[in-house]
TrEMBL record:
Cofactor: Mg(2+)
Species of the source: Rhodosorus marinus
Residue span(s) of domain Fructose-1-6-bisphosphatase class 1 C-terminal: 223-353
Protein name: fructose-bisphosphatase
Lineage: Eukaryota, Rhodophyta, Stylonematophyceae, Stylonematales, Stylonemataceae
Pfam families: FBPase, FBPase_C
Amino acid sequence: STAVHSDVSPMTLTRYMIEESNQNLDKEHLVDLQGIMSGIQVACKKISSLVSRAGITNLTGLEEGGGSVNIQGEEQKKLDVLSNEVLKNSLRFSGKMGVIASEEEDEPVVVDEVASGNYVCVFDPLDGSSNIDAAVATGTIFGIFAEDDEQPCLINDDEGDLDAQKAACLIQTMQPGKNLVAAGYCMYSSSCMLVLTTGHGVNGFTLDPQIGEFVLTHPNMQIPSRGKIYSFNEANYPDWDPTLQKFVDSLKDGSNKSGAKYSSRYIGSLVADVHRTLLYGGIFGYPGDAKNTNGKLRLLYECAPMSMLLEEAGGLATTGRERVLDVMPTAVHQRLPLILGSKEDVQELVDLYQAE
Ligand code: AHM
Ligand code: MG
């Protein structure tokens, strides 16, 4: 109901996770996800606080010490580095993680704490951080895989080859998006929102600063089947393939199937662009182009979690030619073209590619 805010016992994220696992005792992973989500939500609150106070605490700008560069060759901002530490530690201490793979780390990190568990978390701790210094929206993106029982990830210093054990753990990260047991994002904007799926629908929680809790404000989110907004970095238009060029032209002049003339919105912050697309409908894309054949966004911790959310909300997510959730990763930081949004909008583009 819309009265959740004033409820004397609001549906917090923690309560939601407990009730969901109590009501679905047959569903695997939900009990473990309680612990994992309690770690993630604390990290998100901490990152939200860091982001909102960055201008005051001198946390804007680049990481000091000779300009750190991550594995993507991107300069790391102070807040990228800090957010990564915050999330990594929260996950580690959840006791459920075997492997964690972050945009900000060259290699997945094997959790060798005594209490390490058998889940894999892939994440981008602070996506869209180029926006940070202008106080524009940013977000955290995460996905959770269960480890493959056939190749359990166990680190035991006393037994055998440590490198071989770690290599077995790293393989656990290479799973297609359809294996995700949960995915979500937290957006740091005019309000802080955490949007989550555990494989049965999508729910949105808003951080209530008065009680410091994420409260269910957007139950069972569904994306409209058609929208009127397209969201691409149009500066790349000259490098797009002709099919995409024609499709976007048809959104501008109304010659698309819906007959409507679309509006353009592009924040340049994936979480915010996806969040708006989820709520208002339409189509978002970061396609491959002549210069970057696989686009910009990373399969494991950007494309796959967003695609799971969109599909769970009744939308579609594709590379243009293939369902994103079916793509088998071959490298941790691999990029993939991503087009997602309302079912009819995305299908129209997929049909055009098929008719090529
Ligand atoms: P980042 O991970 O370095 O922050 O880059 C990812 C961001 C996404 O949030 C956004 O969708 C995209 O880069 C925007 O790229 P561009 O500036 O090329 O439009
Ligand atoms: Mg990113």
